[in-house]
Amino acid sequence: MKFSISSSILAILPLASFAVGATLPLESRQTCTLTCGNVQDSLPFIQSFSQSGTDHFYTTSTTENAQFAAKGYAAQGVAGRIFPTQEPGTVPFFRLFNAGWVDHTYTANQQLRSAEINITKPPYADDIIAGYVYLDGSCPGTIPLFWAFSTSITDSFFTTDLAEYDSAISSGVYNGQGVAAWIYPAA
Ligand SMILES: *[C@@H]1O[C@H](CO)[C@@H](O)[C@H](O)[C@H]1NC(C)=O
């Protein structure tokens, strides 16, 4: 079970959900609408897949997407929309790369990022910040980005399509890891 450590850490560290409302002073409630980013600033989170590396890859950069296409990554459309720069209410969506597994993974969870780097064997390494995302669904129009991981082909797969997520799990190839982030739909 290559992924048991990360999975168990994720289980005890659910993504933060912020209780807003009755217990907050009026001033806080009035500013709630300001804690969301402007969806018009979001960019497509472009998805591709390498058959040889069994690696799903996601980027907001059309330049980087073209570079990966040249390396043999096949276009798979758009997974959703995320922010290229930090907006109100968002956190970094870290991209990590595991050279041993040829796996790019993405997380908004700092503890999980640390575990992937310091505990998972072979280890992941910090790559870049892929963009900025929400930790919960409190901003209007956001949807969950689901994360599935395959131990057999060592691939992290992300989708906002719940049916696709369920299908990946029921295929027996992937294990459901839950919600990685909240983002905007592709269209
Ligand atoms: C990994 O562990 C080292 C040593 O404890 C620590 O300094 C470093 O911050 C950790 N890395 C991450 C990403 O947490």
From TrEMBL:
UniProt name for this protein: DUF5648 domain-containing protein
InterPro entries per UniProt: DUF5648 (IPR043708)
Domain of life of the source: Eukaryota
Record's keyword terms, sorted: Signal
Upper taxonomic lineage: Eukaryota, Fungi, Dikarya, Basidiomycota, Agaricomycotina
Species for this entry: Psilocybe cyanescens
UniProt signal peptide: 1-21
Domain (DUF5648): residue spans on this chain: 45-183
